[in-house]
């Protein structure tokens, strides 16, 4: 029994935990470029129609979601000399680099009198980039299953993943802001500097990620059957969705909060709140968000500690409740807001009770939520281990891409929801820092900034109530999987092993 218990725990070395999340940082370099600047390139450099350029960002995000199932299936079928994940990490980054060169430089060489070819080339290279992006980003979630299954280590992925993401996104965002401020975002000079930097930065981060997973990307860490290649088909997705309730609940929690977050933090919502309502965007927006990010630091440490002691389910539920309670205060304060009233106007230069209460409620609420924003990522690995326990199949590619499919679809809806909401009160152009306050804007802000996140957190709490993978339950699953794996390695059929060991009681009887 003790031997099986010891064999059930797969621990990673510290450098592996630190380096592998840079895979997410590497893909986020390209994510920032496409989400924030590709429309500038299409419209400003290539001369493509503005509506086409902005619409393609959403269209390709949806295309990205639907490439996930196919690529997830390919990952699960792979087990070669380079392992299961490294081939797709390396290939994905290479594809993105090639597509970026052609997309941002090759398309310029097409003459203006062949505009149809510019449109075609832009779309085709954008699609190629999406395929490469999905190859690499799918490995972030699925690769965790081989990295570690230790309940005390998996929560650490949340911290290291956040740091790695900030390295990728932060560096390219800072450089882009400085360069764009000098030469303009829609200029050739901007892309001449930023694209080569992005390619090099992403390649370096990819190398770090490959080093991080190198020793773990081996058959002995692939589920119960080890070297056996799973024979998976697209119908596996439907079967897993029907029978794996835990993944469905995690998708509900992760998808609802991702959509709410993309809406509440939308630039138009911030402009309506801080500029139109409070009248001081430049003096409020950045300082308040710095305070909020600072508030998330202690919650990061607390949430990881809670996850290590009680499991990731308990940590996600606990700090979601904190966020929900704090946002009740934010909601009440915005309901009391009155146009032109000094008593209900936010001001950091002349602090009043209203500002103090708003910052306290919002910073604590945002900090509690943000500390758990990436927690569903390591929880996908728990769901993958549960699927191996439930069905005997090791399909981390399918599990990760099922989750990311929903994540990408809902995140693509954020701007659409904001657009519909502002149009409902008669605004025909997205609000900016110069948009004056108008009737009904207060209620739009309340719905988008407070109520939608609160509904998402209620759905998260409901999902976690039905989600059974607590810390103790995951330890039991790992031990049962280890017993089955040992039996299969000694010659037992996987079906017999699945039937023989189902609970800890079965393991105790063996002892």
UniProtKB/TrEMBL annotation:
The chain crosses the membrane at residues 12-33, 45-67, 88-110, 116-135, 156-178, 190-214, 259-278, 284-304, 316-337, 349-369, 409-431, 443-464. Pfam families: MFS_2. GO terms for cellular component: plasma membrane. One of its GO terms (biological process) is carbohydrate transport. Keywords: Membrane, Transmembrane, Transmembrane helix. GO terms for molecular function: symporter activity. InterPro entries: MFS_2 (IPR039672), MFS_trans_sf (IPR036259). It comes from the Bacteria. The keyword Transmembrane applies. SUPFAM superfamilies: MFS general substrate transporter (SSF103473). This is MFS transporter. It comes from Mediterraneibacter hominis.
């Amino acid at each position: 029994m003790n031997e099986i218990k010891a064999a059930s725990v797969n621990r990673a070395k510290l450098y592996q935990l630190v380096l592998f999340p840079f895979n997410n940082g590497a893909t986020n370099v390209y994510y920032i470029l496409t989400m924030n600047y590709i429309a500038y390139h299409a419209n400003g450099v290539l001369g493509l129609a503005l509506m086409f350029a902005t619409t393609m960002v959403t269209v390709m995000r949806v295309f990205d979601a639907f490439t996930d199932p196919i690529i997830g299936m390919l990952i699960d079928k792979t087990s070669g000399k380079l392992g299961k994940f490294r081939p797709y990490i390396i290939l994905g980054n290479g594809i993105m680099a090639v597509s970026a060169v052609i997309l941002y430089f090759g398309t310029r060489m097409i003459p203006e009198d062949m505009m149809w070819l510019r449109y075609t080339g832009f779309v085709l290279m954008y699609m190629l980039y999406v395929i490469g992006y999905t190859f690499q980003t799918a490995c972030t979630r699925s690769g965790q299953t081989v990295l570690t299954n230790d309940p005390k280590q998996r929560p650490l992925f949340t911290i290291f993943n956040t740091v790695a993401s900030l390295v990728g996104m932060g560096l390219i965002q800072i450089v882009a802001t400085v360069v764009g401020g000098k030469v303009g975002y829609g200029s050739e000079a901007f892309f001449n500097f930023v694209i080569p930097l992005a390619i090099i930065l992403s390649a370096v981060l990819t190398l770090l990620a490959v080093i991080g997973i190198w020793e773990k990307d081996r058959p002995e860490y692939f589920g119960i059957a080890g070297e056996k290649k799973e024979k998976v088909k697209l119908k596996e997705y439907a079967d897993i969705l029907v029978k794996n309730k835990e993944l469905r609940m995690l998708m509900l929690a992760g998808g609802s909060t991702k959509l709410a977050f993309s809406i509440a933090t939308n630039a138009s919502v911030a402009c309506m709140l801080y500029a139109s309502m409070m009248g001081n965007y430049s003096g409020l927006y950045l300082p308040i968000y710095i305070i909020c990010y600072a508030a998330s630091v202690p919650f990061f440490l607390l949430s990881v500690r809670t996850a290590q002691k009680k499991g990731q389910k308990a940590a996600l539920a606990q700090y979601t409740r904190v966020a929900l309670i704090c946002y009740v205060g934010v909601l009440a304060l915005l309901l009391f807001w009155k146009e032109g009233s000094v008593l209900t106007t936010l001001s950091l230069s002349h602090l009043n009770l209203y500002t103090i209460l708003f910052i306290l409620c919002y910073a604590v609420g945002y900090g509690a939520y943000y500390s758990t924003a990436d927690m569903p990522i390591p929880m996908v690995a728990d769901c993958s281990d549960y699927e191996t326990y439930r069905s005997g199949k090791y399909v981390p590619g399918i599990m990760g891409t099922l989750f990311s499919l929903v994540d990408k679809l809902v995140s693509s809806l954020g701007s659409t929801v904001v657009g519909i909401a502002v149009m409902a009160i008669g605004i025909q152009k997205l609000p900016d820092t110069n948009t004056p306050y108008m009737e009904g804007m207060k209620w739009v802000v309340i719905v988008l900034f407070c109520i939608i996140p609160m509904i998402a957190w209620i759905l998260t709490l409901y999902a976690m109530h039905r989600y059974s993978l607590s810390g103790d339950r995951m330890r039991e699953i790992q031990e049962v999987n280890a017993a089955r794996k040992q039996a299969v390695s000694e010659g037992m059929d996987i079906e017999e092993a699945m039937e023989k060991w189902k609970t800890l009681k079965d393991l105790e009887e063996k002892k």
